[in-house]
Amino acid sequence: MPVRVKSADEIRLMRESGQKLGQVHAALRDMIRPGVTTAEINAEGERLIRGLGGIPNFLNYNGFPASICVSVNDEVVHGIPSDDRVLKDGDIVSLDAGLIWKGYHSDAARTWPVGNVDPEVQKLIEVTRQSFFEGIRYARAGCHLYDISKAIGAYAESFGYGVVEDLCGHGIGTHLHEEPQVPNFRQKGRGLLLVPGMTLAIEPMINLGTKRVDWMPDAWTVRTADRKPSAHYENTVLITEGDPEIFTL
Ligand code: MG
Fold first, then answer.
1. What's the CA-to-centroid distance between 61 and ligand 1, angstroms?
2. What is the pLDDT of residues 156-201, one digit of tens each?
């Protein structure tokens, strides 16, 4: 499937979709505290998405059983919300959420501290977030896709962190996952030439220790191989002639 450049009307709908998702994340942030279950976060996320007129795009995606991926500590992504998983002081929690608005998808992720977090882990969260912004310096017309990948990976690796290679970002639009794939580490060559109207979900997943990950028997949850913490930060962005527009902030 070729990379599709969005029309002005499509961009308007993707902007609306992303703005709604940004509101969902802002509201979910306020409920992160010790004692909350990951199922409660999912339920509130789904209520917020539907309340804004959206459809949760993760729900039933390849059979995923929830609207929000809630991944705790060493869980990298795709954590399944559960009544039994209670957040406790010192945890970190990654929320990955998405919605469909008038046929257009948005996708974004945040990692939040729960109560008081080890400074080393707090730094992982901040570097992961910043690695996204280092990457999107190259998310503009005239740059190439892998310029983004290289910048994300180089920044995270400069702190000695493990950059997850088994999962990557992606194009987004009328489908949650479109071409191209957006890796978070250096590739051969520079890849696709970026042009205005491309829409990408850029999402570094950065580990405190090894970059290697394991898939759990639930067929969804991805954990770090060394069980050290992992952080995730993602936004849906539009390529323009200048700075990218971030739809989901
Ligand atoms: Mg994504």
1. 12
2. 999 999 999 999 999 999 999 999 999 999 999 999 999 999 999 9
From ligand 1's centre to the CA of 170, what distance in Å?
A: 7
Gap from CA of 68 to ligand 1 centroid (Å): 12
Distance 226 CA to ligand 1 centre (A): 24
List the beta bridge partners of residue 93. Answer: 72, 112
Q: How far is the CA of 34 from the centre of ligand 1 (A)?
A: 27
32-82 confidence digits (pLDDT tens): 999 999 999 999 999 999 999 999 999 999 999 999 999 999 999 999 999
CA of 221 from ligand 1 middle (Å) equals: 15
C-alpha 208 to ligand 1 mean position (Å): 21
In the reported structure, the alpha carbon of residue 77 is separated from the centroid of ligand 1 by a whole-number distance in angstroms of 10
The rounded Å distance from CA 6 to ligand 1 centre is: 18
- State if pTM tops 0.70: yes
Task: Sketch the domain layout of the chain as residue ranges.
Answer: 8-246
Residue range 211-245, pLDDT digits in tens:
999 999 999 999 999 999 999 999 999 999 999 99
CATH classification code of 8-246: 3.90.230.10
